[in-house]
Design goal:
Layout lengths: L6 E7 L3 H12 L6 E7 L7 H8 L5 E5 L6 H11 L4 E4 L5 E2 L3 H12 L3 E9 L5 E6 L6 H6 L9 E3 H4 L11 H11 L5 E11 L4 H20 L4 H19 L8
Parallel strand pairs: 1-2, 1-4, 2-3, 6-9
Antiparallel strand pairs: 4-8, 5-9, 6-7, 6-8
Helix pairs in contact: 1-2, 8-9
């Protein structure tokens, strides 16, 4: 039997204290115990820091890194990766929730199939934890089909540190993870989807209406600036990506549960 690899779990924190305990508890309840937890406190206001420290309660597996100023989730993840000591990196946003067997199932799958990057299916919940949509299915991706639609839930990703440390999350408000997944895919690294619902992704009540325009322009930047596509191809790809997003999250209301 292969030796179990250590996992470094990275959580950027910014004004999510009302959700953080459930997120943290979902890590502590994992039936995979060979892990460390790296929290990047990215809020210049330190009011929630005391409550956060109280929740983690001097857990020796937890490292809290405090940013002097707000630098955003992407740059915070870059910083956390430098502190990571695990062979594997797992990402989790501070309002999402993992299933108890998430790491065990995923890492076992990766070891068995010699996989360097994996992600899983996930469900969408609201601020109160109510399920909103059916599970977003995970499937194997390559560069070409990733360009069409990014269905990788960040909080489901487990990747080898040796891979992710070669890249940097850009300083963007949204789509910063999309940039990294495309760069990894271009290196012909398999993006392996595990069709198990192992995560709940929390959607804020106003997130779609307030950020859709931002996501649209950030998607254009991904294609035009980072992927070096010309302006016409970038516009086409951005519209296609947006259409696929709308199709999944607006038009499939009959699939609500």
């Amino acid at each position: 039997m292969k030796k179990l690899p250590k996992v470094s779990i990275i959580l950027p924190f910014y004004k999510k204290i009302s959700f953080f305990k459930k997120t943290y508890d979902s890590i502590i309840r994992q039936n995979y115990k060979f892990l460390e937890i790296i929290i990047i406190y990215d809020d210049p206001d330190k009011k929630e820091l005391f409550r956060l420290r109280k929740i983690v309660n001097k857990n020796k597996k937890v490292k809290i890194i405090i940013n002097k100023k707000n630098i955003g989730a992407g740059l915070s993840r870059n910083k956390a990766i430098k502190y990571a000591t695990g062979k594997l990196i797992a990402f989790l946003d501070c309002d999402d929730i993992w299933r108890k067997n998430k790491l065990k199932n995923q890492i076992s799958f990766m070891q068995k199939n010699n996989i360097q990057f994996s992600y899983t299916s996930y469900e969408i919940i609201d601020e109160n934890g109510k399920k909103l949509n059916k599970v977003v299915q995970a499937y194997d991706l390559n560069y070409e089909n990733l360009l069409r639609s990014c269905d990788i839930g960040l909080s489901t990703v487990v990747v080898e540190r040796a891979i992710i440390s070669k890249f940097k999350f850009p300083d963007m408000r949204t789509k910063e993870d999309f940039v990294i997944w495309l760069k990894i895919a271009k290196k012909n690294i398999k993006l392996k989807g595990i069709n198990q619902n192992l995560c709940s992704w929390r959607k804020s009540s106003n997130s779609l209406s307030s950020s859709f325009t931002q996501k649209f322009f950030d998607a254009f930047k991904v294609y035009n600036y980072f992927e070096k596509k010309n302006i016409f191809i970038s516009i086409f790809l951005t519209i296609r990506l947006s259409f696929n997003f709308l199709l999944k999250y607006y038009l499939k209301t009959k699939n609500r549960i």
